[in-house]
């Protein structure tokens, strides 16, 4: 599903699973959701993966493995981590953004890696066994 074209470019597409997959050995996808919507700044589409360890890796080591994987396989460079606390969600987030396409069809590709604080329930946001979510977003908004 794609949203309507913005700024004269093509419609924004839903990010492909190949941006993340295949995962490193011992990690598994426990949820994969997509959504597209419009905003005042144009349309955007998300794909969010919930990731868990399948080999006994402690949850606090999963983010490092995923960040290294995204750097090696996709060339992503992440900014510094930020602690986030919402009503009933706590964790650490890393973000990256890059521009793709050509001058009449620019698209921004965003990725966000969110590591849940171990011991704090989060099943409203991802399956309870997930240690991390990885969200890819395509939009025509500028990287900041």
Major sheet, described briefly?
A: 6 strands, antiparallel
**What are the low-pLDDT stretches, counting only 5+ consecutive residues below 50?**
none
Compute the number of strand runs. Answer: 6
| 3D shape | globular
Number of helices: 1
Structural class: mainly beta
The overall pLDDT average reads 87
Strand content: 35-45%
Order of helices and strands: EEHEEEE
Distance between the ends = 26 Å
- The share of residues in helices is under 10%
Radius of gyration: 16 Å
Strand order of the largest sheet: 1-2-6-5-4-3
Provide structural commentary:
There is one protein chain. 9% of the residues lie in helices and 42% in strands. Strands 1-2-6-5-4-3 form a six-stranded antiparallel β-sheet, with helices on one face. The radius of gyration is 16 Å and the shape is globular. The chain has one helix and six strands; from the N terminus they run ββαββββ. A hairpin with a 2-residue loop joins β3 (82-86) and β4. By secondary structure, the protein is mostly beta strands. The protein has one helix at residues 62-74, and strands at 27-39, 42-53, 82-86, 89-100, 107-116, 132-139.
């Amino acid at each position: 599903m794609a949203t309507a074209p913005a700024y004269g470019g093509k419609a924004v597409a839903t990010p492909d699973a190949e941006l993340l997959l295949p995962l490193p050995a011992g990690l598994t996808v426990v949820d994969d959701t997509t959504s597209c919507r419009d905003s005042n700044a144009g349309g955007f589409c998300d794909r969010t993966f919930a990731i868990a360890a399948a080999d006994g890796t402690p949850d606090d080591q999963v983010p490092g493995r995923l960040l290294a994987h995204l750097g090696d396989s996709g060339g992503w460079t992440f900014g510094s981590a930020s602690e986030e606390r919402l009503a009933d969600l706590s964790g650490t987030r890393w973000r990256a953004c890059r521009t793709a396409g050509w001058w009449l069809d620019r698209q921004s590709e965003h990725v966000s890696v969110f590591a849940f604080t171990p011991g704090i329930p989060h099943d409203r946001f991802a399956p309870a066994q997930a240690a991390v979510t990885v969200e890819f977003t395509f939009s025509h908004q500028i990287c900041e």
